[in-house]
Amino acid sequence: LRMCQSPAGASGHLRNLRAKTCRPGAGGTNPSLVEAMYLGLPILAYGVQYNRETTEGKALYFDDKDGLVKLLENIDEEQLQIVAHDMFVVAKENYVWEKIAKQYAELF
User: Fold this and answer.
1) Kind and range of the H or E run holding 61
2) DSSP code at position 60
3) Contacts of residue 6, Cβ cutoff 8 Å, sequence gap at least 6
4) Half-sphere exposure of 6 (CA within 13 A, CB side)
5) What is the pLDDT of residues 26-51, one digit of tens each?
6) Which pLDDT value is given to residue 32?
7) CA 86, CA 36: separation in Å to the nearest integer?
8) Gap between the Cα atoms of 106 and 100, Å rounded
9) Using CB atoms within 10 A of its CB, is residue 26 exposed (0-12), middle (13-18) or buried (19+)?
10) What is the torsional sign of CA 16, 48, 57, 76?
């Protein structure tokens, strides 16, 4: 597992992960989180609203260290595969430049 605040250019390392954990940051869409979603990694995210919105409520969430430990103790391979697939689909549907540019154009 690796925390979301990865240094720039870490995508080569991300491809070798089994899962991605996301802790709270400044808020908003986390580029490292979206990158991990595109790589088809199962996401274990801190349960804040912006992580839930970014993942469309389809990741696995925890609220504290005990919640993360419980999640890790009870997760199975099938659940990880489902979450990984869902994360890839969410990324492909929502985080593409064409769609984002169109949304900005409509906003302004």
Assistant:
1) strand 60-62
2) E
3) 13, 14, 32
4) 23
5) 555 688 899 999 999 999 998 999 89
6) 87
7) 12
8) 10
9) exposed
10) positive
* DSSP symbol at 6: P
Look at residue 7 and give its three-state secondary structure: coil
Could you tell me which residues come within 8 angstroms of residue 18 by beta carbon, excluding any fewer than 6 positions away? 1, 41, 42, 80
**Angle 31-38/77-94 helices, nearest 10 degrees?**
110
Rounded distance between C-alpha atoms, residue 1 and residue 93, angstroms:
25
Residue 78 CB: number of other CB atoms within 10 A? 8
Q: CA 63, 88, 46: angle at the middle one, nearest 5?
A: 10
Instruction: Convert the pLDDT of each residue in 71-87 to its tens digit.
Output: 999 999 999 999 999 99
